[in-house]
Write a structure and sequence with these properties.
The complex is a heterodimer of chains A (112) and B (124).
Chain A lengths: L3 E4 L2 E3 L6 E7 L4 E2 L4 E2 L1 E6 L6 E5 L3 E2 L7 E6 L2 E6 L8 E7 L6 E2 L3 E4 L1
Parallel strand pairs in A: 2-13
Antiparallel strand pairs in A: 1-3, 3-10, 4-5, 6-7, 6-11, 7-8, 9-10, 11-12, 11-13
Chain B lengths: L2 E5 L2 E3 L5 E8 L8 E6 L5 E7 L6 E3 L7 E6 L4 E6 L8 E8 L11 E4 L3 E5 L2
Parallel strand pairs in B: 2-11
Antiparallel strand pairs in B: 1-3, 3-8, 4-5, 4-9, 5-6, 7-8, 9-10, 9-11
Classes of the chains: A mainly beta (112), B mainly beta (124).
């Protein structure tokens, strides 16, 4: 199974500042024949289901603010929230969909 | 509006059974791989099972293999999860989720639509 490890487990960021979350996979999730990284990012607020933010490691889902961006390739990925807003307080998860079983990181809690 | 609504959760004793349902609206379930994901209290997300569009491909996480069965009724736009021999460790909120890419040949996908979840508690 591919193990997804996020860092840090939690971080506190001032309003308007940048938040950076890292995700490392135990195996490469780049599918060379498709030229894509099979990596997604989700946001989960308390009492709500997860919301897809980013897929293919860097493609923003429709309706997601452009302050959210994803980067990285292979085994190392980053979610960046440029200029944190109050509504961005949540837990963020990375997920690999390169192979079954599909696996998630343990989550990173972002606070103000 | 595109949405998924789960039902069927509840309190069950260890060794018991439950059947969860997930009904889709606003889109055709038959076009998508569908997935069950669970979240134990205060914990992270765990993929449980998925199924292809016509139901002839199913995959499970090892911890539920042989105890859980995923199925679907495309005519009813519904997905199901039959859970048998339930254990304390199965206590969680169970979400159904849609694979983002329609008509995909592969279950390896991100999940773009999620239900609100249904809570399953396994306790004596």
């Amino acid at each position: 199974d591919i193990v997804m490890t996020q860092s840090p487990d939690s971080l506190a960021v001032s309003l308007g500042e940048r938040a950076t979350i890292n995700c490392k996979s135990s195996q490469n999730v780049f599918y060379s024949s498709h030229n894509k990284n099979y990596l997604a990012w989700y946001q989960q607020k308390p009492g709500q289901p997860p919301k897809l933010l980013i897929y293919w490691a860097s493609t923003r889902e429709s309706g997601v603010p452009d302050r959210f961006s994803g980067s990285g390739s292979g085994t190392d990925f980053t979610l960046t929230i440029r200029s944190l807003q109050a509504e961005d307080v949540a837990v963020y998860y990375c997920q690999q969909y390169y192979t079954i079983p599909l696996t998630f990181g343990q989550g990173t809690k972002v606070e103000i | 509006e595109v949405q998924l609504v789960e039902s069927g959760g509840g309190l069950v004793q260890p060794g018991g059974s439950l059947r969860l349902s997930c009904t889709a609206s606003g889109f055709a379930l038959r076009d998508h791989w569908m997935t069950w994901v669970r979240q134990a209290p205060g914990k992270g997300l765990e993929w449980v099972a998925n199924m292809n569009q016509d139901g002839n491909e199913k995959y499970y996480v090892d911890s539920v293999e042989g105890r859980f069965t995923v199925s679907r009724d495309n005519a009813k736009n519904s997905l199901y999860l039959q859970m048998n021999s339930l254990k304390d460790a199965d206590t969680a909120v169970y979400f159904c989720a849609r694979g983002k890419v329609p008509y995909s040949a592969s279950g390896e996908d991100a999940f773009d639509i999620w239900g609100l979840g249904t809570r399953v508690t396994v306790s004596p």
